[in-house]
Structure formats: structure tokens, C-alpha cells
Amino acid sequence: MRMQRTLAPTAAAVPPQALATAIGALFSHGARARERLARELKEAFHVEHVYLVTSGKAALTLILLALSRSSKRRKVIIPAYTCFSVPSAVVKAGLEIVLCDVLPKTLDFNPDRLAELVDDQTLCVVPTHFFGRPADIDLVVTLCRPRGVVVVEDAAQAMGGHSKGRPLGTIGDVGFFSLGRGKNLSCGGGGVVLTSSSQIGKAVQAEYQILPVESWGNSAKNLVELIATELLIRPSCYWLPAGLPFLGLGETRFYPTFPMERMGEARAATLVGWMQRLDALNAQRQLQGSRLEGDLKAQSAGVETIGSADGCCLRFPLLVRDRATKQALLQRGAAEGLGLSGSYPAIVQDIPELQGQLPSREFPGAAAVVERLVTLPTHQFVQPTDRRRVCQALIEMNAVTAVGTQGVIDPQPPGSQVRAAWRS
Ligand SMILES: *Cc1c(COP(=O)(O)O)cnc(C)c1O
């Protein structure tokens, strides 16, 4: 552990005033903060139904339970590369995981594989906006509608992002956000279900109303953790939690035993003024993302940009050359406190707890992402000197890159020109 400036991979500030309001809400009765939050979310996202729970995985589970009650179909198609919470939720809902490969250059479903997988046993498909980068929901809808398959949009990492003018999370039949640590907007832990379908809304409502509200103890614990996160997320302090492996920061876990609870008052109260906060946080991330892209472009010719400036750049994903480069880069990132992250450590099929439960298949795209994906931080604490150090590390590790958030940079041979451009 070294006492030095250390960036977290992501950060979402909570103003002290919101924390103070939440402490007050711990000791109040009623549901004012929750009702207000739900109302504001409906208005902001133009949806008919909103449900608030204590995690993104609980939100997904709630959706899956609701969908499964009125259908005999049991298969849920998820990306072969995704947050381990997603297969956890499928298992928790008693449904069957079906994995679909992804394309490394988009982190989205491989459309050919998806077309082969969707059938009349498929309950729903879960396209995912990784790092705030919009997935192609329209394509999934086109495949699913004619077959009576529901599109569940995983917008856990994309709250406040847009695609072609439409808010992410509201393009499919039903969607969810995570309000966990490391997400676009955080109340410690939280989840939001949103839909405009009256049929799905009714089914989710039926499941939601039998859930308990989180206990006072859970509310208090969450608030204490949120305050600790606020204090320690600063670059001057983050070396401390980053150096304590038992905190498991940034780890993704498979565990289907998570609680299913409605959100309490204190969590909702931490989100007062969430709209302005989210806008400011995402604007900052977009700005950092485009600066990073500019920095990376400036030192490598022949940049090919695809996609759009849509979305919200929760992190800046890129593919490095190979596994060894990724490991070397992450090691250097950890040593220098650069806020680099390798994201999920395995494809879903290789999660130890799922061994022997999924048919053994090849997922070359997802495997390549595990080997080569690195994310760069884009939060408000990233300074120009940090960006310079990150880019320097990329060049020196010879991590010729294919850049994700807003475009792709084709692999470039490393050259003295590149280095010269950086020094100057
Ligand atoms: C974080 C995340 C979830 C789960 O959200 P939690 O609030 O952590 O339970 C689901 N899907 C993706 C893609 C995520 O990043």
C-alpha cells in the first residue's frame, strides 16, 4: 500500500446536504422521499411505472419474476460477458441462463449469434449498455417482437445516457438502473425498474407489493457506507481502501442470495436533487471521455471512428493487444494509482458456482473481451496530468488500442513518432 494520489475507476459524488437529509430521513416515518423520487423518475424518463428496490440485481430479479409468472417460457438470454449480478438474478428468479456471445468492438451482442438463439422458449433478452455505451436495442426488439420475447434493457451503467434522442433504459419493453457504488448515480445501493407497458407494469407491481421494505438496520448501514465512500473516493484518500483487499472494491460476485427489498426513505433521501447531479456527473464524464479520445487519437494516426457521441461515458473502455499487455498495464495502473480497471474477470460460463450447469460452448468474442478490455476513469477527479500519465502508460506498455466509447482506433504499430508526439 502506497500513500499516493490514487484514482478510483469510477466515482459519483453525493453532496453533503443530501447526506444530511438522509440522516434525517432515517428517523422519519412515511414515504415522502420515495414517492417523490418515483414521481420525478417517471417524469424525467417519460415512463408510466417506476419501482424502487435496494439493488440493480433486485430490480432485474423483480422484472424476471414478474415476466415468468404469466409465461411457460424459462430461458433468459444474457451477454456471455456481463456483470456477475446478472446471472445471479436469473438463478434467483428460478430461470434458465442462456449465453450469447458479444462483439469485442461494440461490447454488444453478436447479432448473428443472437438471431440463432431467440426461440419460442425464450422469455426475454437482456441487452446491456456497458460503461454507458448504447447497445443496439432496436435490433434486439426487431428479433424479439415477432416471437413474443420481452426485451429487458440492462441500463445499470447508463442512467442519464441517450441513444438517438431516447433515454437509455426506456427503449426496450422494460428496463432497470443500478444506483450502486460505481454507477452513474449512487445512493450506496439501489435499483430502479421502469416500464411504460401496462401489462408488465401490473405484473411487476404484483411482485413489488409483496416485498418487504428494507429494515432500519440496512438503511443505516447503507448510509454509513455511503458516507465512508464519499470520504474515501477522493484521490488523496483512495489509496487506503484500494490497498485493503478484504474490502473487495470493484469486485463482481456471483451470489443469488441477495435481499429482495423495497427501497427505504433514507436511500431515497440521498437522491434529492438527483436530476441536476446526474446531469452534471454525466456531462463531466462525456467531457473526460472525449478528451481521452482526443489524447489517444493525437498520438496515433489512422483513427477510425464509429458509433456516435451518444450515451454517457461511465468509463472509457478500450481493447489492448493481448492478455499479457492487459496484465502489465493493470499492474502499472495499480502501482501508479491510475484508476484503470480490467472489468469482469471471466465470462459467465467460467463462473465457478455455475460449473456444470451451463452447456459448454465457445464464446470467442466474450473471451477476447476478458483478455483485452481495460477501462480508463472519466470521473470528476481526473486531471489533465492523470490523463497524460494514463496515455503514457498505454504507449509504454505498447498497448495499441481499439477504443470503445465513441469510436474504434485500429491497431497501430508502436512507433517513435508516436512517442515523440507524446513527449512534445
Ligand atoms: C452493476 C450492474 C448490475 C447490478 O446492479 P447492482 O446494483 O450492483 O446489483 C447489473 N448489470 C450491470 C451491467 C451492472 O453493471
Q: In terms of structural class, how would the helical and strand content be classed?
A: alpha/beta
Helix content: 25-40%
Count all strands and give the number.
14
- Rg, Å, rounded: 21 Å
Name the helix and strand elements from N-terminus to C-terminus, one letter apiece.
HHEHEHEHEHEEEEEHHHHHEEHHEHEEH
Main sheet strand line-up? 1-9-8-5-4-2-3
What is the residue-mean pLDDT, rounded to a whole number? 89
Q: N- to C-terminal separation?
A: 33 Å
The DSSP helix count reads: 15
Q: Estimate what percentage of residues fall within beta strands.
A: 5-15%
Q: How many strands, which pairing sense, and closed or not: the largest β-sheet?
A: 7 strands, mixed
In this entry the ligands are: pyridoxal-5'-phosphate
Envelope shape: globular
Poorly predicted runs: 301-308, 400-424
Task: Give the structure's gist in a few sentences.
The chain is an alpha/beta fold. Helices cover 40% and strands 13% of the residues.
Provide keyphrases for this structure.
15 helices, 13% strand, 424 residues, alpha/beta, binds pyridoxal-5'-phosphate
Describe this structure in words.
This protein has 424 residues and is α/β, with parallel strands linked by helices. Helices cover 40% and strands 13% of the residues. The chain contains 15 helices and 14 strands. The chain has a seven-stranded mixed β-sheet with strand order 1-9-8-5-4-2-3, with helices on both faces. It has a three-stranded antiparallel β-sheet with strand order 12-11-13. A two-stranded antiparallel ribbon has the order 6-7. Helix 4 links the parallel strand 2 (75-79) and strand 3 (96-100). The longest helix has 25 residues, at 274-298. The model is unreliable at 301-308 and 400-424 (pLDDT under 50). The site of pyridoxal-5'-phosphate has 15 residues, from helix 3 and helix 4.
